[in-house]
Amino acid sequence: MSPTSLGLVAGTLTSIAAIPQLVKTLRTRHARDISIWQPLLLAIGVALWLIYGILIQDLPLILANIIPLACNVMLAILKLRYRNDCDALD
Amino acid sequence: MSPTSLGLVAGTLTSIAAIPQLVKTLRTRHARDISIWQPLLLAIGVALWLIYGILIQDLPLILANIIPLACNVMLAILKLRYRNDCDALD
Fold first, then answer.
1. What is the pTM assigned to this prediction?
2. d(CA B7, CA B9)
3. Residue A63's CB: how many other CB atoms inside 10 A?
4. Tens-place pLDDT, residues A9-37
5. What is the chain A residue with the closest CA to B49?
6. Most A CBs within 10 Å: which of B24, B25, B57, as the mutation test of the A interface?
């Protein structure tokens, strides 16, 4: 496998990684064991990656960060929405 | 802020994002609401990013993926370890 193919597989896996978590959280309506910091830091981080990709006009960087941005923003919102009194944000 | 500084902040945030989740999971010993697929896909994905970084000799790419690799491998193991009968892996 060439380094470029390896990079493409790596980018695909890290791009889609939050989808199963989002599906599970939407389905179970529970987010007790999820730290708000992971989706929050990932959402801010991938948003900055996206802006960086736009600034340096790098299409793969832009494409790789759109799905994680959407998923992690939604996960952070769901963590707040499904929270109850016994559910810590940290 | 220059594109390079923006990229460095983005890389730092996405690198450290899994640390609070790891701390929370270790502290609470619960991983019910976590999908095994997120840490698993991220662990494999960042491992491939790391190999890609080594192959193309890109130091920032190598450094940015070491912490997420360690955190996500540990999270996947903890998800299996703290699992009980009522706790789905998906």
1. 0.92
2. 6
3. 13
4. 999 999 999 999 999 999 999 999 999 99
5. A10
6. B24
